[in-house]
Amino acid sequence: MGDAQGQGRLTVPTFFLDENHCGNPHLHAVFIAAGVPFEKHTDYFSRGVDDTVWIPEIARRHWAVLTADTRIRHNALERDAVKRHRLRFFYFARNDFAGVEMGEILRKALPRMIAIGNRELPPFAASISRNGEVTVRDTFSDL
User: Is the pLDDT at 7 greater than 80, yes or no?
Assistant: First the structure.
């Protein structure tokens, strides 16, 4: 859902749950309870597809990614794809949170994630900490 002016800002973004988290019912429950739309990786892409394949499509749709895959911020090809396609990228700061815990963290973080999505023009990467704090960590300005 892009804005009418084409400025790249969102009101309530659709979140794209990456392959590793698209089956987490605790995340689904948070989005449903908040009335925030979300889409699942496996509804659009096969398992194991390279990130550089799905990033352009998700960005074209103006969706925001939710993942725990911090490697995207460090892999040169993936960083370039995030910047080139102007992706909104939210990631759990650690990838060892249990499913229930991820749901609770997301419940705390979601209002801030939406606010950042409205304030920051893409591309950006923002981390989500255990206590639900959301911090923009990268705007990919170095590419």
Answer: no
Q: CA angle, corner 132, sides to 69 and 43, nearest 5?
A: 45
Distances in Å between the alpha carbon of 135 and those of 50, 61, 124, 127? 26, 23, 10, 5
CATH of the domain at 127: 3.40.50
pTM of the model: 0.86
Range of the domain at 58: 15-138
Q: Return the SS3 of 15.
A: strand
Q: What is the mean pLDDT of the chain?
A: 87
Q: With respect to residue 60, please indicate whether it lies within any of the assigned structural domains.
A: yes
Per DSSP (E only), the strands in the chain are 15-17, 38-40, 64-67, 88-92, 124-128, 134-138
CB 102, CB 24: distance < 8 Å? yes
| Short-list 32, 30, 10, 6, CA closest to 88 | 10
